[in-house]
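The pair is quoted verbatim as follows:
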Amino acid sequence: MGRECLPQAQLAWLPSLRQGQSDWRRILQSLGELYARGTPIDWRGFDGGYFRQRIDLPTYPFQRRRYWLPTDSGRPAANSSAIAVESSPILNRMLQGDADELAQELGLSYEKRQWLPEFLELVRRRHQRETLFASIQNWFYEIQWRPKPRRAEPSLESIDFSNAGRWLIFADRSGFGRRLADVLESKGQIVYLVNAQDSYRKIEKNEWNIRPDNQKDCEFAIEEILRDCGASLKAMIHLWCLDEAKTEDLSIAELERA
């Protein structure tokens, strides 16, 4: 009635009641429109006077009940523009069939508003069909893991030993590192061995004992090695992990030592 009395006035007409909608929802929508248009709202007064009850929320995830709001994070990035459109207020009004507010927002004249409800109903039905069709398409696909052949590990036969190189090996206590050093030296390579022991000591020209938990020991050994080889190493092999105890054999003392 107000719009018909003042058809030329640039005013925002916000209803408090509407047939087919709850009164509370209609009030909230009108209040949101006022806030969006810059009207100051007394939020403390609006939110006051309601009875509230404290409830217990789960503190662990084993109850298998989710309290997160659903998101569209599973959609591909190519549909980012479609997500933005779906969440726009004007599209929500179109799908809800809110002809009066939509006409007011678009600035339609009284004559043009006559065909708007029928148009919105057609748009709503078309949107429902396309949404249903898109969801049905996903029913025919499922994710499958395809096994990929394991990449072959490099071996000594694949390494070029035509030129002498310098190798640094952090040798394990079981002797595997020392045997590897013997193989490399037999192929004309220069090998530096660093053993994990309880004290720092230089055993031979190219072999050191260091304390693994002492940073200075490692720095002294590395400095000597780099001075000898001119800061040029062909490779470094770390084998101390082979000395680690099996999980079932771990004790408090082993964990503290690690």
